[in-house]
Amino acid sequence: MIKKKLAFIGPGVMAEAMIAGLLRKKLADAKNIIASGPREERGTELTKKYGIQFTTDNSAASHGADVVVLSVKPQRLTEVMKGLKGVRSDALVLSIIAGATIKKIGAGLKHKAIVRSMPNTPGQIGEGITVWAASKEVTEEQQEMTRAILGALGEEVFVEDESYLDMATALSGSGPSYVFLFTEALIDAGVHMGFPRRIAEQLVLQTLKGSASYYQAAARHPATLRNQVTSPGGTSAEALYYLEKAGFRTAISRAVWAAYQRSLELGKEKPGHVEVDEEK
Predict the structure, then answer these.
(1) Which domains does the chain have, with CATH numbers?
(2) What pLDDT does residue 80 have?
C-alpha cells in the first residue's frame, strides 16, 4: 500500500478519517495521496494537517491513481461521475456513498473494478465497522488493498451479496445516530430528575461503554443479560414494561426499515437541485 497512489473525490469527514487512519498506520505515504473538492479552504486545511495534495479538479486528482475513493454526497454522484475522466482502466474504484450500486458506478464511469462499501461515524477514531462488496473484476491484490484502507477505519466485513450493503447502511451506517439519540434521551432524563448535566453525561456514557463491553465479553444473547439485571417487581422491570408498552422495540425496528428503504431509493434517485458541496 505504501507506494500506491490514492485519490479521494470528495474531501469530507469520512474521507479525512480514511486518510488519517492510513497515515497513522503507515499504510500510505502522504505524498501519494490527493483529495479533490470544490472548496479551496477545505483543501488548505487538509494539506496543512496531513501533508497531502489537493485540487479542485476531480479528473486531475484521479489521473494515474491506483485507488480512486468516491466520497461525495449521493445526490452529487451522477454529476461528479460525468466529469471524472482520468480513472485508469486498471485502477480500483472504492465507493463509500450510500445507495450507490456497483452497477450504477460502473455505468457512470465505464469502469469494472469497483468496491462498494458502507463505513460508519466511529471510523473517525478507528472504532468503526465497514461492510463491503466487490465486482468480480476486482483482483485479489485490490481486495487486500480494500481491506487495508477500510481497516484504517476499524473493523471490515466482506459480503458476496451486494444487497447486504443497503441493509448495512440502515443498521450500522445510520446506527450511530440511533445510539446518539438514545444517549441524548438518557442524559436529558437524568437532568430532569435533578443531576447536573456533566454527571448525567458521565453516568450515561460509562453505562453505554460498559454495557457494550460486557455484552461482548459475556458472549450471550442480549435478552439473557437483560434478564440478569431485571429483578421481579424492581425498577428495571418497571422501566422495561413502560418501554415495551410505548412501542420502543417496534419503533427501532421501523426506523431501521425506513432507513433501509431510503437507501434503496437513493440508488434509484435521479439527481435534483442540491448545494454544490462534494464533502460527505
Answers:
(1) 6-165 (3.40.50.720), 175-266 (1.10.3730.10)
(2) 93
